[in-house]
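Technical annex B. To support the medicinal chemistry partners, we prepared a structural model of the target in complex with zinc ion, based solely on the information shown next.
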Amino acid sequence: MDYNLQHLFSDLGIFVIEILLVGAVFYMIEKMRPAEEVTFFKPGFREELGLAFLNVSLFSPISIVVMAFFVMNVIQDIIPYQMFSSQIEALPITIQIVFGLFILDFSTYWRHRFTHHFMWPFHSVHHAATNLTWLTALRLHPIDIFTATVFDVLMLHLLGFSGVGLLGAVFILKGYNYFTHANINLKFDKPLRYVLASPHYHRWHHAGEKHAYNKNYCAMFSLIDLMFGTYYHPERLPKGYGLEPLEQKDYPDGLLGWLAYPFKQVAKNFKTKKEA
Ligand SMILES: [Zn+2]
Ligand SMILES: [Zn+2]
């Protein structure tokens, strides 16, 4: 796949427009009904924005190019390419979009669960946020971004999902991810809460309370959490957000610290194992 400067500038242009639009919309919504008292330009705002910028301009394109190369040169020979594309494209567009959303969220669920259990130092960058706003949705370590690309590309490649249905699903899921991270005091009533995630629901994924760890992995369909035993929905809001106190205490503040932290942790764990 060819990725050139023109692609990069159009990606950056879309990113700037996205941030300005989404920021303006959530600036108003978060003011109306906040879950917590957090200022729009909160502590960590600059770093979260900087990380998002790096991901869009550098790490996401690299991940896509690497995965596309891998699919075309390795996977294609092993797994039949786009098994169900003709059946999917025959569906009405709304069904395609809903199906696309579910497929992408199913992939998100298992990738997210995988990162909690096997790639925690990298995913911890997302969880080290002690305040949750729309911008926290973009606070992801580049290796987390790469893992997401691997899961999504493989899943979509396998099925043969493409075209308007896929674009619609990606667009809606992105918007929904901003919504569930936003500082909004909103939970859904039963039975809707068993199907769709709300901002309240995702706040429990970030809760600093031990009983809430490793719950609510979905991005959109809480039904998937319900299916696999990770659904958690207390009525009250969490008391706070972030990591276990010991891990939070030593967590770096700056952007470079966030980028380096997981690698230092992996090296430290490796050294401890070797010495044991
Ligand atoms: Zn998580
Ligand atoms: Zn989150």
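Notes passed to the chemistry partners:
The chain has a mean pLDDT of 89.
The first helix runs from residue 5 to 32.
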